[in-house]
Amino acid sequence: MSLQLPQALAAPLSWTGVAAWPYEMDEDLLRAEGARYTVVAARLRGSVRDTDAHASQVWRHNTGDSVDAYRSWMAENAPGDRANRLADAAELVGLALLTAAVAALMWKLGVIAQLVALVVAAARTVASPGAVVAAVARTRRALRALLDDVVHFLARGVVEPMKRAVALLRTGAGRLRGRPADWDPLRAAANRDVNVSAIRPRPGFRGSPFRNSTRPVWRRDGEPVYRSDTRHPDEIFSEGFRPKNPHNTDLNGYVAHLDEKARNSAFVSTSYSDRIHLQWHEYGRQGWVYDIRTPGATGLRLPNSSYDEVVFPGGISPEYVMRARPYRVGRKGEVTVGEWLENPHASPG
User: Fold this and answer.
1) In terms of domains, do 271 and 149 share one?
2) Are residues 160 and 225 in the same domain?
3) pLDDT of res. 79
4) Would 87 disulfide with which of 44, 141, 196, 344, CB 3.0-4.6 Å?
5) Are 313 and 218 within 8 A, CB to CB?
6) What is the mean predicted confidence (pLDDT) over 310-338?
7) CA 96: distance to chain centroid?
8) Domain-embedded: residue 103
9) Closest Cα to residue 323, out of 349, 298, 345?
């Protein structure tokens, strides 16, 4: 049952001349509907995770024309992407409804508080009509100011999420813009046991509503990337860069290096800079800089990275590691590098 205006305050409300009570607004109903939308969003995401997991099992354990056709259909039609967009839109609508419920309750409580204050002031100045008129005028101004605050609150918390939901639904009708029809996000991966749909924050594509945010995006170029690593090329040229835990898709935790669990993730980091080894000015440090050429539309660009970072879910398969050269940090921080060593098994993307 939504909050109703006490009968004793109906007359004081009429004194103000402000149609202030939202009789048709039921905050309980808004809250319940908002909760339903958030549940729908969670169920959609759960369905996507389950579907991707089953599809991964099919591709891992089966071969043939029908399996290839299924994989091509999944890549072309992107049902998981569409469902995730619907989930995002549903979550935004749910958030908007919950915010509207808060706004309605905030408005009603504010009106009641102002009217109670008016009744108290009128009772104290009953012998002074002028004082009562002044109290009514103050209450009218307070109610109008409160209404302005509620309108601004609704604009930020209801209108904007609804606009974003509409944008998601409009762009989600077909294949996501900026993504090739045969897109395989794990094409370069050394370990394909990664649920791409479970990556959080969920990556966007160039052309998506999130293009101006710090959200990671799937890169579209095939430019070389580089990785500094202490492991010898004998290991990397044969095994590639394998993720420590393909099931940990918390990208926020990986980037922030929150704890050991975050570092043991599904991601392997690289940079567009071939001087990435200069980030590690530790005396006595030595290692290798690897030149990597993966297919386009693989790897996630991190717009807020300090060194133009690209991370690869599932790591990087050895055929995309072109070459390596050694480096060493000297006593005074000077860095010396050796000659490039080619990977005889390399096959650039």
Assistant:
1) no
2) no
3) 78
4) 44
5) no
6) 89
7) 17
8) yes
9) 345
Last residue within a domain, chosen from 154, 171, 188: 171
> Are residues 164 and 224 part of one domain?
no
- Domain region containing 228: 217-342
309-313 vs 267-271, strand pairing mode:
antiparallel
Same domain, 259 and 319: yes
Q: What is the pLDDT of residues 10-64, one digit of tens each?
A: 888 788 877 667 777 788 999 999 999 999 999 988 888 888 778 778 877 888 8
| Residues 70 and 163 occupy one common structural domain | yes
- Cis status of the peptide bond prior to 161, with omega within 30 of 0: no
Give pLDDT tens digits for 217-271.
Answer: 788 778 899 999 999 999 999 999 999 999 898 887 787 765 566 678 999 999 9
Give the mean model confidence (pLDDT) for residues 149-174.
Answer: 80
User: What is the distance between the alpha carbons of residues 42 and 44, in angstroms, rounded to a whole number?
Assistant: 5
**SS (HEC) of 168-228:** HHHHCCCCCCCCCCCCCCCCCCCCCCCCHHHCECCCECCCCCCCCCCCCEECCCCCCEEEE
Give the separation between CA 129 and CA 61, rounded to whole angstroms.
87
244 with 155, same domain?
no
pTM of structure: 0.53
Domains identified in the chain, total number: 2
pLDDT of residue 188: 93
Residues 115, 247, single domain; the answer is: no
How many whole angstroms separate alpha carbon 99 and alpha carbon 163?
Answer: 14
Which tokens sit at 176? 């996501």
Whether the per-residue pLDDT at 341 is higher than 80: the answer is: yes
Mean pLDDT of 173-188: 61
Helix (H, G, I), strand (E, B) or coil at 274: coil
In terms of domains, do 235 and 161 share one?
Answer: no
Q: Which of 53-67, 149-163, 271-285 has the lowest mean pLDDT?
A: 271-285
Asked if the structure places residue 195 within a domain, the reply is: no
Residue 164 has pLDDT above 80, yes or no: yes
Side-chain-side CA neighbours of residue 284 (13 Å): 0
Residue 277 contacts residue 327 (beta carbons within 8 Å): yes
* Closest CA relative to residue 335, chosen from 269, 274, 272, 275: 275
197 within a domain of the structure (yes/no): no
The residue type found at 97 is L
